[in-house]
Amino acid sequence: QVQLVESGGGSVQAGGSLRLSCAASGYIVRMAWFRQAPGKPREGVAALYFGLGEIYYADAVKGRFTISRDDDKNTVYLQMMSLKPEDTAMYYCAADPMYGGRWALPDYRYWGRGTQVTVSS
User: Fold this and answer.
1) CA–CA separation, 35 vs 92, rounded Å?
2) Chain centroid to CA 74: how far?
3) pLDDT tens by residue, 26-83
């Protein structure tokens, strides 16, 4: 069983930055960040496929968010810049020991508990 522990959420003003972290306790080959705003479905934000070196971003965050990995710490980061009020959501990291659909929720076996990001205008 892999455990994912997120950190780094908080409240910022529009235009500000935050960095989220997700530390994994076991073997995984890919990790992604999803977010869910109240009343909306959970959506993919960024995904990183370790062995393939592939990175994907949702259109809404391209050019503002960066996903990266620290191999030694088995931790993935989401650097969020130029934050907008519409980025306000609970952010979840997800991971799986097998490759699968980048934004398909059922394709991720492990999920963190989430960390809240609030962006005020």
Assistant:
1) 6
2) 14
3) 899 999 999 999 999 999 999 999 988 899 999 999 999 999 999 888 999 999 999 9
